[in-house]
Amino acid sequence: MPKSSAGVRALALAGSLTLFGMLAWAMVSLPQEANGLAPLVHERVDESGVSNPVTAVLLNFRGYDTLLEVAVLLLALIGASFLRAGEEEDAARLPRGGGPVLVSFARVTLPVMLVVAGYLLWAGSSMPGGAFQAAAVLAAAGLLAVLSGLAGAPRLYSRRWRAAVVSGFALFLTVAAILLVVEGALLQYPRTLSGVLILLIEAALAASLGLLLLAFFGEGRQRE
Amino acid sequence: MIPVLLDAVLAGMLVWLAWRSLASADVFKGVVLFIAFGLVLALVWVRLEAPDVALAEAAIGSGLTGALLLDALARIRARAKKAGDDAEE
């Protein structure tokens, strides 16, 4: 890397210090007692179908934010798969089969990881946890399985992988579309069904996002 | 007194890890420091009473992103090695 000149460095330093000062000033000048929307959320959390206020905001009050987040993840994977498509064979392979220690470690750990993922998903309705955390644990379990040679790497070009990766977003979008027609607003759950619908969406998201995150480690089609 | 001290140590470590991660010449070392940075940041979120964010940071920000960076590093090295072998032939 070429060394940047003293002038450029001084400019960068001045710029970052100014930004730091502005951010610090913004923090300090925040009103002391402001709780934002927290009281409103706590007041209406009973209507959301879950008892954890964070899950209530993510899946109910601001459900469309989460819907779009999943769409962004999907777009990111599509972008990454383009990068992988043209890779040379030996650069594209993940290392496999790390010897007996890794394999037996994976055999012991994988069931525990699956249980932890399920617990995180279930716990999300009443305490910290939820679909994204469960998905990350699932993806980590999948990666461990691939690295230890117990499972093949995700194949981004196979139809089954693509279907699995899209399924969570598809279900979420379908529920949103149905509710738009039936209830008249995007992701406006009927009061009696909201708990069930949120759990359904979270379960589908956890499974599908787990595979989606794992697919970032996938392989493009090998050139013969 | 102890909580303030703990917060000060965490904040100091965070800045130091971020700086070392960006400034280290060895890319692998930088990635490992980035993972450590993510784990300390998760602790900071816990101190800020945001356990949901802490979980997400530890699992996604530190774990998965770290693994992706290591994967990318391995691929870059494999490609560089192949280019070197081709040049020798």
Task: Give the topology, please.
The complex is a heterodimer of chains A (224) and B (89).
Chain A: H1 6-28, H2 38-44, H3 53-61, H4 63-85, H5 89-92, H6 99-123, H7 131-147, H8 159-182, H9 194-215
Helix pairs in contact in A: 3-4, 4-8, 4-9, 6-7, 7-9, 8-9
Chain B: H1 2-23, H2 27-47, H3 51-88
Describe the structure.
- The complex is a heterodimer of chains A (224) and B (89).
- Chain A is an all-alpha fold.
- Chain A is built from nine helices and no strands.
- Chain A has helices at 6-28, 38-44, 53-61, 63-85, 89-92, 99-123, 131-147, 159-182, 194-215.
- Chain A is globular, with a radius of gyration of 22 Å.
- Chain B is built from three helices and no strands.
- Chain B starts with a helix and ends with a helix.
- The mean pLDDT of chain B is 88.
- The chains are: A mainly alpha (224), B mainly alpha (89).
Characteristics:
A: mainly alpha; globular; B: 89 residues; mainly alpha
Radius of gyration from the alpha-carbon trace of chain B, in angstroms: 17 Å
Oligomeric grouping of the chains: heterodimer
Alpha-beta classification of chain A: mainly alpha
Quick one: how many beta strands of chain B? 0
Strand residue percentage of chain A: under 5%
What is the N-to-C succession of helices and strands of chain B? HHH
